Amino acid sequence: MNFSFIDIGIVLAYLVLTLFIGFWLSKKASKNLEAYFLGGNKIKWYYLGLSNASGMFDISGTMWTVTIVFVYGLKSAWIPWLWPVWNQIFVMVFLAIWMRRSNVMTGAQWITFRFGDGKGGRLSHIIVVLFAVVSVIGFIAYFVEGIGKFATTFFTWDLSTTIMGLHLTSAQVYALIIIAITTVYTMKGGMYSVVSTEVLQFLIMTVACVAIGIIAFNQVTPEQVAAATPDGWTNLWPEWNLSLDWSGIFPELNDKIGQDGYEMFGMLLMMMILKGVFASLAGPVPSYDMQRILSTRTPAEAAKMSGITSLALFIPRYLMIGGLAVLGLVYLKPELMKMGADIDFEMVLPMAIQEFIPVGIKGILLAGLLAAFMGTFAAFINAAPAYLINDLYKKYLNPGASNKKLVRYSYMSSLILVIIGLAFGLFAKSLNSLTLWITSSLYGGYAAANVLKWIWWRFNGMGYFYGMVGGLVASIVVPPTFRIFVPGAIDIYMFPITLLISMSASVFGTLLTKPESMETLRKFYKQTRPWGFWEPVKREVMKDDPSFVPNKDFKRDSFNVLVGITWQMSMVVLPLYLLSGEYQSTWITLGILVGTSAILKFTWYDHIKNIE
């Protein structure tokens, strides 16, 4: 790529600034573990929300999303339900409030708050730490694949080398360099550094996203989009069998759809909804999203932080994604066809940037995309050491360790996790394979036990332990076994099997062991105030405190979740309709966005303002 000195200067200035912020904040962050991992619960909720939005704006996920918009058009808006993308709505409506009331530092500490410190609680505590570490390693591997592909499109120097007998491509070397810079500033500045740099990154990304949206709107006409896409590309509504036929326009895309396994779109959507409800009700996995919830000052601010995350994230992000997708569709077909049998649609994003973005804006965009990667990566490597140091080392090995030693060991654990994640990332097949394994298999094993922990009083620590072990084992064993009988099946179709195994292990493990002490259950229920099947515990709490008011918001929360999912979906499709030239649908979607926002103002926001 031909970079101007302006573009290079912008990128270098950004990298220097992030390192400066990390070292500048290192003194404040190194006071103790609370300061290092939670910012001392002093960071304002809207900064945490913008930080969270930036952390979700990762480069690997953006490359993947540009690809699916390119291939599937408006129907691609449903595919991120694989994560599920609307778990943030469950968190916003009620789970953030429940979680923040615990006043703990990590998800593993929260497990002790829920199940006590007996055998079941300790085993559950350890298994959550294990899950957190495995998931972070998986995500680090996922990031390595994406940033390497991205970097080689922009930086043309051949850095391939051999280290200790291992041949590293240029993409892998670029990934190592960028990851090294990110690791250094995150290790030094902790949560203060992560949030400060991510707010800066969010501002850079927003400018870049709006710029790309304007460029695409001006350079691509509705007629060009229609000529470059098959019938149904601009149709949002799902169908049982995907009818997109690229045969006369871009036949290789039919092969891509077959490889993805999305032809039976109706079945895919049903699986995503099934998984989405369970995975969302389970609450945030023990990673950066949960850490920001626990970093807020109050439960009400935790809910507002989760709300602003969705509001800040989707419209800017999809302006960029939609813009790059339509530019690629109209202008990049010859370049993609040159790849022949090895065509890689995940390269649409960097190729579109290289081709269409002018000097100056290109530097801002590249800095912004590096920021997106670095922000998400930093969030993970700041979150995971909290589990190793606070939940293992401090709890079991050295309870009297000094703050200086704990922070120093946090640096070391960050470095070790990054090295392990890099080792896995160097052998990853593709972004799509990593995405599907993380979202469908690994998180499938997390759902059952973590739903029951909120809603069923009898569920105990041993049940949680067996459920999580069953889920983790199933997430590793089920996919290869299932594919023996159904070759080529994608991981989402295995979710019901993984869920059934994990749920069975959870229920049997619970019923075959003693319940937790009523004292532990009373403390959890009174402080957290969840709805669900808590009647025996509720009676005990109200016997001690007749003034206690139980949670009766199940119907309100369910309504707000449905409205919230619609609200979030409208923010996803609004830029896509606009940039594909579907102006009538754009106005309808804008009306839905305004209407759902007004409803949530009265049914959600006004309700949480005074929550404690």
TrEMBL record:
<keyword id="KW-1003">Cell membrane</keyword>
<comment type="similarity">
    <text>Belongs to the sodium:solute symporter (SSF) (TC 2.A.21) family.</text>
</comment>
<feature type="transmembrane region" description="Helical">
    <location>
        <begin position="464"/>
        <end position="486"/>
    </location>
</feature>
<feature type="transmembrane region" description="Helical">
    <location>
        <begin position="492"/>
        <end position="513"/>
    </location>
</feature>
<feature type="transmembrane region" description="Helical">
    <location>
        <begin position="585"/>
        <end position="604"/>
    </location>
</feature>
<feature type="transmembrane region" description="Helical">
    <location>
        <begin position="264"/>
        <end position="285"/>
    </location>
</feature>
<feature type="transmembrane region" description="Helical">
    <location>
        <begin position="123"/>
        <end position="144"/>
    </location>
</feature>
<keyword id="KW-0406">Ion transport</keyword>
<keyword id="KW-1133">Transmembrane helix</keyword>
<keyword id="KW-0915">Sodium</keyword>
<dbReference type="GO" id="GO:0005298">
    <property type="term" value="F:proline:sodium symporter activity"/>
</dbReference>
<keyword id="KW-0769">Symport</keyword>
<feature type="transmembrane region" description="Helical">
    <location>
        <begin position="164"/>
        <end position="187"/>
    </location>
</feature>
<dbReference type="GO" id="GO:0015193">
    <property type="term" value="F:L-proline transmembrane transporter activity"/>
</dbReference>
<feature type="transmembrane region" description="Helical">
    <location>
        <begin position="306"/>
        <end position="332"/>
    </location>
</feature>
<dbReference type="GO" id="GO:0005886">
    <property type="term" value="C:plasma membrane"/>
</dbReference>
<dbReference type="InterPro" id="IPR050277">
    <property type="entry name" value="Sodium:Solute_Symporter"/>
</dbReference>
<feature type="transmembrane region" description="Helical">
    <location>
        <begin position="45"/>
        <end position="72"/>
    </location>
</feature>
<dbReference type="GO" id="GO:0015824">
    <property type="term" value="P:proline transport"/>
</dbReference>
<dbReference type="InterPro" id="IPR038377">
    <property type="entry name" value="Na/Glc_symporter_sf"/>
</dbReference>
<feature type="transmembrane region" description="Helical">
    <location>
        <begin position="364"/>
        <end position="388"/>
    </location>
</feature>
<feature type="transmembrane region" description="Helical">
    <location>
        <begin position="6"/>
        <end position="25"/>
    </location>
</feature>
<feature type="transmembrane region" description="Helical">
    <location>
        <begin position="434"/>
        <end position="452"/>
    </location>
</feature>
<dbReference type="InterPro" id="IPR001734">
    <property type="entry name" value="Na/solute_symporter"/>
</dbReference>
<feature type="transmembrane region" description="Helical">
    <location>
        <begin position="559"/>
        <end position="579"/>
    </location>
</feature>
<feature type="transmembrane region" description="Helical">
    <location>
        <begin position="409"/>
        <end position="428"/>
    </location>
</feature>
<keyword id="KW-0813">Transport</keyword>
<dbReference type="Pfam" id="PF00474">
    <property type="entry name" value="SSF"/>
</dbReference>
<feature type="transmembrane region" description="Helical">
    <location>
        <begin position="199"/>
        <end position="217"/>
    </location>
</feature>
<keyword id="KW-0739">Sodium transport</keyword>
<keyword id="KW-0472">Membrane</keyword>
<protein>
    <submittedName>
        <fullName>Sodium:solute symporter</fullName>
    </submittedName>
</protein>
<keyword id="KW-0812">Transmembrane</keyword>
<feature type="transmembrane region" description="Helical">
    <location>
        <begin position="78"/>
        <end position="99"/>
    </location>
</feature>
